[in-house]
Amino acid sequence: MQVGFIGLGRMGSGIAGNLLKAGHEVTVYNRTRAKAEPLAAQGAKVADSPAAACKGDAVFTMLADDAAVEGVVHGEDGVLAGLAQDAIHISSSTISVALSKRLAAAHAKAGQRYIAAPVFGRPDAAAAGKLFVVAAGSADAVQTAAPLFEAMGQRTFVVSQTPDAANLVKLSGNFLIASVIESLGEAMALVGKAGVDKHQYVDILTSTLFGAPVYKTYGGLIADAAFEPAGFAAPLGLKDMRLTLAAAEDLRVPLPIASLLRDRFLTLLAQGGDKLDWSAIGGLAAKDAGENPD
Amino acid sequence: MQVGFIGLGRMGSGIAGNLLKAGHEVTVYNRTRAKAEPLAAQGAKVADSPAAACKGDAVFTMLADDAAVEGVVHGEDGVLAGLAQDAIHISSSTISVALSKRLAAAHAKAGQRYIAAPVFGRPDAAAAGKLFVVAAGSADAVQTAAPLFEAMGQRTFVVSQTPDAANLVKLSGNFLIASVIESLGEAMALVGKAGVDKHQYVDILTSTLFGAPVYKTYGGLIADAAFEPAGFAAPLGLKDMRLTLAAAEDLRVPLPIASLLRDRFLTLLAQGGDKLDWSAIGGLAAKDAGENPD
Amino acid sequence: MQVGFIGLGRMGSGIAGNLLKAGHEVTVYNRTRAKAEPLAAQGAKVADSPAAACKGDAVFTMLADDAAVEGVVHGEDGVLAGLAQDAIHISSSTISVALSKRLAAAHAKAGQRYIAAPVFGRPDAAAAGKLFVVAAGSADAVQTAAPLFEAMGQRTFVVSQTPDAANLVKLSGNFLIASVIESLGEAMALVGKAGVDKHQYVDILTSTLFGAPVYKTYGGLIADAAFEPAGFAAPLGLKDMRLTLAAAEDLRVPLPIASLLRDRFLTLLAQGGDKLDWSAIGGLAAKDAGENPD
Amino acid sequence: MQVGFIGLGRMGSGIAGNLLKAGHEVTVYNRTRAKAEPLAAQGAKVADSPAAACKGDAVFTMLADDAAVEGVVHGEDGVLAGLAQDAIHISSSTISVALSKRLAAAHAKAGQRYIAAPVFGRPDAAAAGKLFVVAAGSADAVQTAAPLFEAMGQRTFVVSQTPDAANLVKLSGNFLIASVIESLGEAMALVGKAGVDKHQYVDILTSTLFGAPVYKTYGGLIADAAFEPAGFAAPLGLKDMRLTLAAAEDLRVPLPIASLLRDRFLTLLAQGGDKLDWSAIGGLAAKDAGENPD
């Protein structure tokens, strides 16, 4: 297939590389052109504008947030202007449900197709083609895009014909991770104040009922109070809680733990935590409990 | 070793059976004597009182709650009266930190030793000798009891020389499970109201970051709204949140998620949920969101 | 003074009437022109567009929400287009802090002045000229507008030279009222389930420490479960919590009670409460506690 | 009437003084006898034991907490031993609902009568005979005690024939005060960070909808961050939240704001606030928001 790819951060570069390896013709675009060079060396064409990356059957966007996506979609050189009739915009960014709805409407009006296909997995999984793809869109569009999803991930979950449902699933996943961080933070503040070694505690948890990567990763970070450098920065955590709560408000679903998490992120940022990893909210319970920072 | 065992529910019977298989001489006691018969058939002696089960090197108690433990410990026929000097009371029940402190003091005064050794695992793991034992007590007592722990579990974690630290670790584990139930309940209310299939959603979670037994088990129960019959009844969930919060109050550790969980259990019970499984709190978010029960 | 008035709901009509009585020349505008007639009978001129109401020294806007205010401000016939250099836009609507910031910037750019002047008080206080005005803006603008504030209210509080600070004070006031409703709802669910008469309970509270109008009004509504018809509808309560939380997020101030209140409003609306008074969140605690509705 | 009075702190001394002034024969007892002397000078007899103060028609207890009350009730020299048949124990202390239930049962078994009659008001109101009395007990007992209540307060509210209902009303009142402190603390953290003067803000609130003593008193303390010396110490605030939540748990009433308040008090105490006034929880929101202490 002929496919464009807009957004060559660590996630996007990994995915675009795998699309190339699978034999697709890939045209890439990135605001900072230098990031396109490694892919050009692997055979990608480099476009001068978002629209110029939209000449094929489909175009991916993999960008930081709503504003970045809207920045490449609209305008003379944007995706909406560049994409052919029936061609597909595959949005893999973690964006708001509201923006995903607006994109679906805009592409429908322009006679184009739109799939939301956010992913679970970190940059190393993207590079290895081991992502999990959560896709939603019309059955025909998803079928057309299937070979692309196969190239980038180990498994594709099609969750709905309504694209924004996939964005909601992605956001809810980040909400659940943050829930694990907070509950671990509380439990570790408790047993830690009673003198239990926090590393041993994480070992107990992950050896028994909580043997998931998320407990190992975040339990370790909290036990070490190792919140720098940020793998996923605290302001992004706040953003995802905000987007989750906004989507939940539109659907009229109260989420008390998400509300609590939002307050935790605000506390963290108000106290200077902008550069910390989002797991630093897992240190707030100990701080409230009067534990002295090491 | 010569060892007594008081409390032959599903957990206790499994553990006592494995002590027998490992070659220990076991004297069992249960208020309802009929429950002792299968173990008698495997070679256990049957005692007529708690004290009569305390004639060996150690005695286990594995009972429902604080009141049940206090009921067998005190009085003429109780554990304190029956246990020899230096013999060990191994308390494996999920009891309060406060009671564990009182037991430690009472046994010390009586010249006896005391270990708290609650376990992680369900009745099938108890029967198979696959429990995880979380033990705390004096180094000499724990060393003496080590062969017993080996017979009953796959791994022993010694977390402290202060016995009640083990009770706190156990309680905190149940707090973390309840946190998973609540956060899953919120996430599933959210994506469910957007039309995503709840079983598929659980499949996505457990295939990606949340591949722990606790997510599979409780995600499935919430997706099916299958809260009867109770594996672990809602009033026991409330009890464990209460014990966790009481221990946290003594240590002065605020636990906002535990507070929220306590309120959830109260809501569930106030609305008639006494006979439901504790995972039924995972259905409250959907109810708040106006979802019709099936 | 020559002054325009846009938005002739119950609050706006009362205020405009008092401006007339105080001798000011008032030109009114309302989308539904019929509402302007009683004021015309009192001597007001009636304008055909927002811009046409902006020919004097100042123009008030008193509208339902952000969208309504933006609707009259922008465009060819809008306030920005109609207002003279140095003339003042006095915004008395309960709007978002973010919109107030944008209005301040837009008027500054157009060489006009801008005051935020939301009010405390109900329609009867507006009609009687007994409102409390919370004003913020440049000292010269506030001084110019002082005779207008005197005509409409019993007291003016100038809280800042930054207009949006006044909007924040207004929103925080609604947050505090909702806090009273929720805490009263919890307390009354508690004593009510113990058999105490709820009306007598409100009488005790208001006779002792809580002798403020807000306790009398809302305590009575909760005791009677009299949530229809709505004096201030539940969706407006949710809106004000949302605006409060959004402003707090920008300032990085966590507000756990506001988060809880937002969840309460969502629960109320998810269960069909759109037409209820916002005090109906005060009935949720009793519902959670299993109290049967009368 | 002949009446005993046990507990001569600031509240008790004021009440006992007014009983004397009203012409009743009063026998007082206090652990520290020196506190009885001013009352002896006014005509009171001084007893050597709690039982010795129980020889009349009724005896009041006005003590710090459950333990103090239980300390004077039980034992050879206690109230239960000293009180005649049909004589009345009037318990005015702020105690737990559970203890009040136990006292009711114990006095019934002993053929004595029991009224719970906690009060609203501070020591100056006690001295002036201006308390509000919240009484519950059998109709005949309350009728007998009516002249005593008249002597000590400006108004008596009889809320139930079940004594502990009065204790619950008293606890719920302290819960509502703490709710005001927390919500004011949040609102003032918010407007304060936006640059609004906190004293002016309190003035606005108390001039408009929130003109109750509780807003004036606590708003001023929070604006000044004047949390020392303690009028009512933070550990007592935690105790009252604990008693409120315990009573609510027995009645199965979830109280999310009370849960939040309990966490606030724990945070305050964990960070060294034992000697602060309970209004210091009203400073935590500003601290979370990163405001520097003065």
Explain what this protein looks like in three dimensions.
The structure is a homotetramer of 294-residue chains. Chain A is of the alpha/beta class. Chain A has two domains: 2-161, Rossmann fold (3-Layer(aba) Sandwich), CATH 3.40.50; 168-288, N-(1-d-carboxylethyl)-l-norvaline Dehydrogenase, domain 2 (Orthogonal Bundle). Chain A has 13 helices and nine strands. The first copy, chain A, has helices at residues 10-21, 37-41, 66-73, 79-82, 97-109, 123-127, 139-152, 164-193, 198-207, 213-224, 234-251, 256-270, 284-288; strands spanning 2-6, 25-29, 45-46, 58-61, 88-91, 113-116, 119-120, 131-136, 153-160. In chain A, the strands form two sheets. In chain A, strands 3-2-1-4-5-6 form a six-stranded parallel beta sheet, with helices on both faces. A three-stranded mixed beta sheet of chain A has the order 7-8-9. In chain A, α7 links the parallel β8 and β9. In chain A, α8 crosses α10 (213-224) and α11 packs antiparallel against α12. Chains A and B meet through β9, α8, α9, α10 and α11 of A and β9, α8, α9, α10 and α11 of B.
